[in-house]
Amino acid sequence: MATESNPEIILHNGQFTTLDPTKPVAKAVAIKEGRFLAVGLNEEIIPLASTNTHLIDLKGRSVLPGLIDNHLHIIRGGLNFNMELRWDGVPSLADAMQMLKQQVAITPPPQWVRVVGGFTEHQFAEKRLPTIEELNAVAPDTTVFILHLYDRALLNAAALRVVGYTKDTPNPPGGEIVRDAKGNPTGLLLAKPNAGILYATLAKGPKLPLDYQINSTRHFMRELNRLGVTGAIDAGGGFQNYPDDYEVIEKLAKDDQLTVRIAYNLFTQKPKAEKEDFLNWTNTAKYKQGDDYFRLNGGGEMLVFSAADFEDFRQPRPDMPPEMEGELEDVVRVLAQNRWPWRMHATYDETIERALDVFEKVNEETPFKGLNWFFDHAETISDKSIDRIAALGGGIAVQHRMAYQGEYFVERYGQKAAEATPPITKIIDKGVPISAGTDATRVASYNPWVSLAWMVTGKTVGGLRIYPQANCLDRETALRMWTENVTWFSNEEGNKGRIEKGQLADLIVPNKDYFKCSEDEISHIVSDLTIVGGKVVYGAGDFASLDTPPPPAMPDWSPVNTYKGYAAWGYQQQAQRYQLQNMACGCSNNCGVHGHSHIKSWGTNAPADDLKSFWGVFGCSCWMV
To answer: Which of 8, 165, 482, 523 could form a disulfide with 453 if both were Cys (CB 3.0 to 4.6 A apart)?
Structure first.
């Protein structure tokens, strides 16, 4: 262990929230060899500096432990990030369609323009998705694929041609290709209730070459760093095979280029052959193999396909098939016997109850004690199931999926049923390990502050209050859900999650004081300084001079080069101008004189992109402003 001398970096004159109960606040920290060497007052820490110590004056700024996402598809997301136009946080459909139009203009064939999750129609001022006609107007020849949650995908005519869906294409099991009166596909794909059709269609798109995937993953990590994320538990994913699809992340780990710590779980890929997958992996890989930046965390979130109750609250709850218990028992027995923890996707309590029957049976033969296993999601979990999980020593990892789908849940089940989905405060009160994350990137957004705002306010991103105050958290408890609580789920308790002597030196300086800003501002927080292992991985504002950004996103037409990330932060100034234009002529409700629509006008050949021209200034034919 390092001695309290010659720290490599000292941050001083800050307002540190440490989450260490023995020293809850501090003014300064010293860092050496990637860990906190000392935490305390300025007069205690600054004298530790040597001539080689880098001192950073925080000028009174607030400091928090680095945020850790308990469920992020970071490996899969990184491979595709540079190809995706993200609508995460975009405030209106008009803005989203303008982004789409601009991206279509620079995307060369045969590449696709794809919007893959992270948004909901309820976040838009218009409270709707684009129509297929609007997509065709904006992109008559370029392939466009838009994934909305787990419920649907929108394909323009060019995309239908590319993927080959015709009048004669049959509906896959659990999915629907919506057709017109003549039987021709319209471009709308529905999960009923299985998302397989959505993901199988997306998988038909072009992939990036290896060096581009490396660059793409670096940009995704940088976007996470910008939002204050310093660690994540990767939940695997469909079409993400181990070890083949881990080449990129393993190379970045080997080359010391990871800026987010990753504990990864292995997700089965073969329906009806899940046991073979886990037998192979437990024989060829070692639990906890790796280091503090990249390490194996066990199995899941998919253990067996027969237990996958994908949440699509627009559809009735799916019943799992009768073979679920037998298949799940085979896999859990393999994992328990090899002392591998696991995580299991489960949306509904009905699925959790049946899984617990299996777990209790296996536990009698091979005790789970010491295995930090857990359920993911658990939106409708019952009190009885919580107690059964507690008795088996398990945990519950929640994500902010209801922030994106709360409206649909209320429509189907009612406001009362939505009030504890999931019952976070009750789980805490019962002493069951619990933590928070996002389940990004194909459903909810990867933005941790949206999750924090959801837990504090009880509101969806569309503004619907779904939770009473009794199921909302105070800000410190919510922060712990994103920091120290997550470490139980990766078996790293005491190693990270706090600003505490001896722990890994991961911290953030948010651009707003999380504890003092208004509730409405929480979801808009970003980090001005992010440090992982004592290294600056992101800097902006007062700390921009400390930043070393990665090379530009590859390929050069990547949406990342224009829009950067959440809320189109490379586009906000332009988006604000369009929003002002909308407000000026009242287009959100259509012009009372001309009945026009900005979205439709942007889909025409009129030169609406030129803000100095007649058409561009107003985005339509209306000049009565």
So the answer is: 523
> How large is the average pLDDT for residues 524-543?
98
DSSP labels, 423-492:
-HHHHHHTT--EEEE--BTTSS-S-HHHHHHHHHH-B-TT--B-S-GGG---HHHHHHHTTTTHHHHTT-
Q: DSSP 3-state assignment of 346?
A: strand
pTM for the full predicted model: 0.92
Mean pLDDT for the chain? Answer: 92
Which comes out higher in pLDDT, residue 361 or 311? 361
User: What pLDDT sits at residue 462?
Assistant: 97
8-state DSSP, 290: B
Cα distances from 152 to residues 132, 193, 408, in angstroms, run: 13, 10, 13
Q: What is the pLDDT of residues 250-272, one digit of tens each?
A: 999 999 999 999 999 999 998 99
Integer Cα distance of 527 and 511 in angstroms: 6
Count other Cβ atoms within 10 Å, centred on residue 513.
Answer: 14
Amino acid letter at 324?
A: M
pLDDT confidence tier of residue 66, bands split at 50, 70 and 90: very high
Asked if omega into 65 is within 30° of 0 (cis), the reply is no
Q: Compare 311 and 124 and report the one with higher pLDDT.
A: 124
**Which residues on neighbouring strands pair with residue 40, listed in sequence order?**
28
How many Cα atoms are found within 13 Å in the side-chain-facing hemisphere of 59? 6
The answer to whether the CB of 431 falls within 8 A of the CB of 395 is no
Block residue for tokens 């459909």: 93
Cβ-contact 497, 485 below 8 angstroms:
yes
pLDDT of residue 622: 41
Taking residues 289-307, report their average pLDDT. Answer: 98
Calpha distance 572→386 (Å, rounded): 43
Maximum alpha-carbon separation in the chain: 80
- Cα–Cα distance between 583 and 579 in angstroms, integer? 6
Beta strands of 192-322 (E only): which ranges?
Answer: 229-234, 261-266, 294-299
3 state SS of 63: strand
3-state secondary structure of 114: strand
| H or E element in which residue 77 lies | helix 74-80
Reading across the β-sheet that carries 527-532, which strands appear in turn? 25-26, 15-17, 62-65, 507-510, 527-532, 535-539
- Over residues 387-404, mean pLDDT: 98
> Considering Cα of 534, then 540, then 543, then 547, what sign does the dihedral take?
positive
CA distance 360 to 140: 56
Residues facing residue 234 across a β-bridge: 72, 264
E strand residue ranges, 260-314 = 261-266, 294-299
User: Which neighbouring-strand residues pair with 153?
Assistant: 147, 189
Please report the beta strands in 43-135, taking only residues with DSSP state E, as ranges in sequence order. Answer: 54-57, 62-65, 67-72, 112-116
Report pLDDT digits (tens) over 301-316: 999 999 999 889 999 9
